[in-house]
Amino acid sequence: MEKMTVPGIMGMKEKGIRIAALTAYTYSMARILDSAGIPLVLVGDSVGMVEAGYTTTLPVTMDEMVYHTRAVSRGCRNALVVADMPFMSYQVSVERAVENAGRLVKEGGAGAVKVEGGVRTAAAIRAITGIDIPVMGHIGLTPQSVHRMGGYRIQGRGRDDARRLLDDAKAVEDAGAFSVVLEGMPAELAREITAALSIPTIGIGAGPCCDGQVLVLNDMLGLDCDGRPPKFVKRYAALAEVIKGAVAEYKEEVMDGAFPSSEHCY
What we know:
- By secondary structure, this protein is an alpha/beta fold.
- It folds into 2 domains: 6-235, TIM Barrel, CATH 3.20.20; 239-266.
- The protein has helices at residues 6-15, 27-35, 47-50, 62-75, 94-106, 122-130, 146-149, 159-174, 187-196, 217-220, 239-256, and strands at 19-23, 40-43, 80-84, 112-116, 135-140, 179-183, 201-204, 212-215.
- An 8-stranded parallel β-barrel has the order 1-2-3-4-5-6-7-8, surrounded by 7 helices.
- Helix 6 links the parallel strand 4 and strand 5 (135-140).
């Protein structure tokens, strides 16, 4: 697989090739995704929830995103690495947005950044793309807007809300974004938005008609120990149980003296 680029991702829509994207937060996982041929790896601010135990993505800092982006970038030889811009890294001013996007590229090694919001963040997207940093948009259920939305609620169900999301999608495209995540919306609306845009749409909880799909790696691998995943998540493995079993076996062997055995000694 050749190194994936922004034009390469955009070209996949033109060729009708579906884009399989996943999140990653560590070097080791990034290497696995890269070796499996995933073309786009997102360093999501979801790291705050799945790795740090926060209840929302809001506490995640720029320094934390730079750290995780740097680790993932080292693990991806071929995939395009896109880094989330965390809460308050782009909302304060256009100048701050440009500066923080630059940090994710310069310090983190990202090939692009992701910005939540549509019409209201178009100016920031335009400024960031204006200095040649590619931007992925993100509309619909935007986790950084959890308080305004009153929780993680499906967006775009009513006619007015659907029109608003279509306007958001067009604003993101007009501002220069190379792609846009569509999260938590009816499948028919996602289909309409995908048909209306020339840039690729990446769905998460938005049905099958997007140009690609993205899932949180921990969700699809079944790495969470409790709770049920969202409806849109398909679990491709149950690694939490596998890991717990391995750890329990290790504990037992240490306690009864079976490990280390002679084959593990110098």
